[in-house]
Amino acid sequence: MITHAYVRYEDDRRCAVVEIGDVRGFKADDDFKATFYSVKWTEKDGETQFYRARILLVGESEDDLAKKMMKGRFRVPKLPGGSDSEENDQSVQTPKKKEKETGRAQQCVAGPTGIEKKQLKQKDQRNSQLSAAEEQVARLTSTIKEQEVELKELRALNRQLQQKLLDALDCRQATSQAPAPQSSASKASAAAQTPPRVTLPPPEQSTQEPDLLDTADIGSGLQISTSAWRRIQSHPKDSMFVKDLLTAVWSPAALLGRSLQGKHCPRFPDRPRKAPLSPWKVSVIRECYKERLEKKGLVAELMPGALKQMNRFIVENLSDIERMSKRAVKELP
Length: 333
Description:
The chain is an alpha+beta fold. Among the domains are: about 5-110, no CATH class; about 215-330, Arc Repressor Mutant, subunit A, CATH 1.10.10. It is about 55% helix and about 15% strand. The chain is built from 11 helices and 8 strands. The chain has helices at about 60-70, 80-90, 90-110, 115-175, 185-195, 210-215, 225-235, 240-250, 250-255, 280-295, 305-330, and strands at about 5-10, 15-20, 35-40, 50-60, 215-220, 220-225, 260, 275. The protein starts with a strand and ends with a helix. InterPro entries: BEN_domain, BEND5.
């Protein structure tokens, strides 16, 4: 008993295995190779429709049909008067073609699918991000160039100002050292008014005069040795400048057991707080360090960060003094 058939749809030449009940008007004793039939086609959404098709093979079961198909290629004979039969069955073939054409047209009108829309959106987003990044890079490049030009101008002005200041100091020093000329009349009157010389015992020399003459005011009345100040200013490194200036203001013995701000050490909570350094003297050291940085041409934007390093230099110096003191105590007999 024939239960399945292998058919080929005429409009799109697609082949399929269908149940014999899906073929309209089929009889077992018919010459099925000589005519067209209306065969059911099921869409993916479950909708069914009958289309014009030819029966190529029949079988008593689906397995029997598969065995016949596996034997090899089989020839599909031409239908006698096939053009007439196609014209007669045009009403069966037309709906599937129209449905396919309508589906293609609807897809074209509908535009891109959801995946394509997502890809287009991602592409537009990447392009916008790229353009924004390019604009930001161009803006930053322009800002850097402007800052470089401004920095060069500031350095040139700083050098000019320093040169003018040095020239003014040299001029003032030369004027103060030059003796005032005296006329002959003033010399004669001075000689006439000069009282007779009386021999007096030599005055007691003050032990403070040499110290006062050999000190330099580094700011706000804070004085250190002139030779030490010159040596400190000649240091090429900022760290050595701060550390030597600290030991010139305080002696190493005075710095022993001191801290910068007198804060409690979080590493050793049981230890008592150390005495802080004088804020006034620390501020004078900070002003000296700031003046040094300005002379080196440091811009104002970088000044706060550079001044923060001064605290680190001071803490390092205090730690070094304490370390050397402990080492000296250990070396004692």
